[in-house]
Amino acid sequence: MRLTLKHRVLNAKERKGWHSFFVEIYDDGTRVYEPLNMVADPKDKAKYRAARQFCQDVIAKRQIELSSIAAGLKPSSFRYRKGDFIQYCREVAKKVRNEKTRENWECAINTLARIEPEGLEFEEIDKHWLEDYQLHLLEHYSQNTARHYSTKIRQAIGMAIRDGYITENPNDQVKQITEKEGEIKYLYFEEVMLLDKTPYRHTRRRVAFLFNCFVPVRPGDLAVLSEANIRPSSDGGFEVYFRQGKKQRIESIPIAQQGMVYLNQARELAQAKLGRELKPHEPIFDIGHKKWYGSMLKRWAKRAFELHGDELSLEIRTHFSWACEELSPHWARHTGATMLLNVGADLDAVGDILGHRDRKTTMRYAKIQPRTKRSTIAMMPSIASGDDHEEA
């Protein structure tokens, strides 16, 4: 049996030219490949050498373990007490630096701990266990939540294989739970106009949502938006910008004219509350906890429907009647993107505004409104009736 360190060159935009390492296991004419979950940039020579050395150390350890297994022995590294895999997952989560990502890991691990209250040994993790685990998730959670939890645990399994705790990779034998495309929920422009003319006691939250409809930033970014995130743009206007993701790349969104109206209103409200000018890093919008914000939006929308619902066409009035029950902070971003696409904005341009890396993500927003479909179909030419044709 021979183990050889191999690599493939990545073509992804962010890691183009990087090497992804894997091990080739050659035994009696049969080749098996196992990922090492390690990538490195060959241009960064110091880190690249360290990554290769780490992989070679893992392979050396794996060689010893495979040789022991072939000889009918069970390596000492597999003598773990009950529940060690769950504890292993917790140790993995502790090393995650991003707070939000760490929270996601903890949710997945806590769910696993509830499914396996007696604990889980490394040797129990195989194809059948992973199938049962994913089936349990699908029975008790939505498809996307099940996929989310499964993804973290499958990642942990991959790491445990890399570290030599598991011999066979069930991830290769069990298909991952597919992602279900979520419905993009949005408001019609007429509905936004009704909200604009409907007062509400939580004025700063009201203005924040209206601003977000015309400047489609993420709700999390809206909550911390400050003067430090607003800068002049080259066309004489202004734009919002943030540093996003692990690579801290800059994303910018030009502020529409109507967005500037709400931004200035929010500034005035914030200054009135503080009794002074806002400092550069103080939040402009006061939306409070996301749960309170979401509840307020529903009450505000219901009030707008009661006061002005009769002004809407039947189609939009029907839409707004159920939208009042489901309105959430995310609808503002969806509304902004959908309004742009329905007035003919370029899909790639909208994707760039939203900060999407994949065009497929933006395509989810490109659902043409029903009335636009009907007006388009109305443009279809008609064939003259038979009476208008001369008989042959």
From TrEMBL:
Residues 182-378 form the Tyr recombinase domain. It comes from the Bacteria. Belongs to the 'phage' integrase family. This is Integrase. It comes from Chlorobaculum limnaeum. The keyword Lipid metabolism does not apply. GO terms for biological process: DNA integration; DNA recombination. GO terms for molecular function: DNA binding. Keywords: DNA recombination, DNA-binding. The lineage of its organism: Bacteria, Pseudomonadati, Chlorobiota, Chlorobiia, Chlorobiales. The keyword DNA-binding applies. InterPro entries: DNA_brk_join_enz, Integrase-like_cat_sf, Integrase_catalytic, Integrase_recombinase_N, SAM-like_dom, Tyrosine_recombinase_XerCD. SUPFAM superfamilies: DNA breaking-rejoining enzymes.
